Amino acid sequence: MSGQVTLDALDLAALLCSRVCHDLISPTGAIVNGLEVLEEKDSDEETKTFALDLIKKSARTASARLQFCRLAFGAAGSSAAQIDLGDAEGMVRGFLDEEKTKLIWNLPQMLLPKNRVKLLLNLMIIASQTIPRGGTLTVDPIGEGESMSFRITAGGLNARIPQALGGLLEGRSENGTVDAHAIQPFYTGLLAKSCGLGVSLAPEGDHVVVTAQ
After folding, report:
1. Separation CA 203–CA 156 (nearest Å)
2. DSSP line for 52-70
């Protein structure tokens, strides 16, 4: 039986920080490993070239994830701020593994209220989790103007809705608590409520559709 999750501000902030650290630990760890290889005196040129390429790729990944997380989880300006969907697209493309997941972005380039764009970025994380082996994410608008909401269609091998995800979006979990792994969908539900929207996930053939409206 699931229970309603109640978090105070300090716990929410701590769990979101843990989530950001989780996203950054892999590329930053790879940078450290690459630097250690470069410092080894007996490394040959081929190994050093490989290490340098690893450092460059990991640094780009870390930078892209930081920019994405700054908007998806951070303050990103005043409460009345607006964000360009074109900038949001660039952040999503940087965050996704383009070799694994193709992005089809059908949203217009326009300004939307900050929390609505934050919601979109968090929906992209959720949609990507439904295709763990990669595939295609197609983002379409629902409505227009500042009240625009979103439909994301995820297609890929064995596309599925992770267990407990729907409950977390509604603020519920099996034992009434959340950890750093579960905080992102829980936070997405909070963002949706702040925008006056609800989030739904539904299978459609071999696809999963994530909708906020």
Report:
1. 12
2. HHHHHHHHHHHHHHHHHHH
User: Class of 3-212 per CATH?
Assistant: alpha beta
Angle, helices 114-129 vs 183-194, to 10°: value is 140
Domain boundaries, the chain: 3-212
Dihedral sign computed on CA atoms, order 25, 27, 32, 33: positive
- Measured in whole angstroms, how far is the alpha carbon of residue 144 from the centre of its chain? 23
Tokens 């700054």 identify what position?
Answer: 70
Q: How do the pLDDT tens digits run along the chain, 213 residues long?
A: 568 888 889 999 999 999 999 889 999 999 999 999 988 877 788 888 999 999 999 999 999 999 999 999 987 665 568 999 999 999 999 998 777 899 999 999 999 999 999 999 999 999 999 998 999 999 999 999 888 999 999 999 889 998 888 889 998 888 888 888 899 999 999 999 999 999 999 999 889 999 999
- Classify 143 in phi/psi space as left (phi over 0), alpha (psi -120 to 50) or beta: left
Single pTM value for the model: 0.90
> Is the separation of the CB atoms in 154 and 210 below 8 Å?
yes
